[in-house]
Amino acid sequence: MKAYKSTKKIFLGLSGGVDSAVTLALLAKKHGAENIQAIFMRNWSKDLPGFQCPWQEDWHDAQSVALTLGVKVELWDFENDYKDKVVDYLISEYKAGRTPNPDIICNQEVKFKVFLEQAIQEGAAKIATGHYARITDDPISPHIKWLKIAKDKTKDQSYFLARISQKALQKTIFPLGELQKKEVRELATKFNLPVATKKDSVGICFVGEVGIVDFLKNFIGVRPGAIIDIKTNQRIGTHQGSELYTIGQRHGLNLSSSQDLPYYVTSKNITKNTIYVTSDISATEVWIDQVKLTDCHFISIHPDDISDYSSLSLRTRHLGKLEAIQKIDLGSNNSEITINLRLKSKIKTPAPGQSGVVYTEDGRVLFSGFIF
């Protein structure tokens, strides 16, 4: 049995970035450094051609932060879990022509499942992360928790967290949920944290600053193919591999119309290795007012209770506009819950495989699903 075995301990996921560092500082100040156990999750350590994985640098930064605050830190290896549950899923979805979000799956399967379970096994009373999101009590049943949009709406990460479980919400603390990003940076300086000026990470969750296309090329045998204009049905260009393109994408196509208008990807055929595009922004293929969600996930309510809520809105991408929902139809596909949403206004067609998250009027996550 390890020395930190205690039912009072808070286990914090310490990434080496400024957000989790400030979270650690706030928790140590409130609960005492001896009651906090920092954990660095090594989920990916492989270098890719032309790109060096930054995990060692992040681990060094995490150790420096923990040392500064007098908190113990350990490295937990979840690399196999991350490969099996996130990377393999990512690759299979792209091969099928869909566009998944790895951060959402990482939160669902690794941070708030594998990490949570191991932390509880080691005696954690709670876990904490540096996410910008809030957890609130149900107004009628206080034992039920809700995931809610962060105070800083420009940094809110509730979209990425919408598939975690009620058990995870019960056991999680988000200290940054009530703070603005500017305040977090100021606190990092105030606490003399060695990562106070470190830039925020971008790219794939835990992999680093490598673009998704460059990442996928290491795992998918892509080949060039035809780009077809849906209006003329003529080939107007060549793509790098149909799996690498997203519905709605307009950058990276290297195409120009006679009116010098951008082209949009409207659909793709993986079997034929063909993508279809248009420069007509008013084309029916570009806009929809109905969205179908599959494999729907409910954190805080039963699906049959959806009708109890009104003035709902849909978000189809991180920090994307909240679109008003006019009607909801609940269905099923085998054992999966499917939901059809009719929107009050048309939106640009979202990419299949992305997540759609439905919010209540006061910013709570009602449910989420994968766009079909």
How would you briefly describe this protein structure?
The chain is of the alpha/beta class. 24% of the residues lie in helices and 28% in strands. The termini are far apart.
How would you describe the overall organization of this protein?
Helix 1 crosses helix 7 (181-190). With 372 residues, the protein is of the alpha/beta class. It has helices at 18-31, 55-69, 79-95, 102-121, 158-161, 166-170, 181-190, 212-216; strands at residues 9-13, 36-42, 72-77, 124-128, 134-137, 145-148, 172-173, 225-229, 234-239, 264-269, 274-278, 287-297, 313-315, 323-333, 336-348, 355-359, 365-371.
N- to C-terminal separation?
Answer: 47 Å
Number of helical runs?
A: 8
Mean pLDDT: 93
Evaluate the radius of gyration.
Answer: 22 Å
Keywords:
single chain, 372 residues, five-stranded parallel sheet, 17 strands, six-stranded antiparallel β-barrel, 8 helices, globular, alpha/beta
List the helices and strands and how they pair.
Blueprint (H helix, E strand, L loop, with lengths): L8 E5 L4 H14 L4 E7 L12 H15 L2 E6 L1 H17 L6 H20 L2 E5 L5 E4 L7 E4 L9 H4 L4 H5 L1 E2 L7 H10 L21 H5 L8 E5 L4 E6 L24 E6 L4 E5 L8 E11 L15 E3 L7 E11 L2 E13 L6 E5 L5 E7 L1
Parallel strand pairs: 1-2, 1-4, 2-3, 4-7, 8-11
Antiparallel strand pairs: 5-6, 8-9, 10-11, 12-15, 12-17, 13-14, 13-16, 14-15, 16-17
Helix pairs in contact: 1-2, 1-7, 3-4
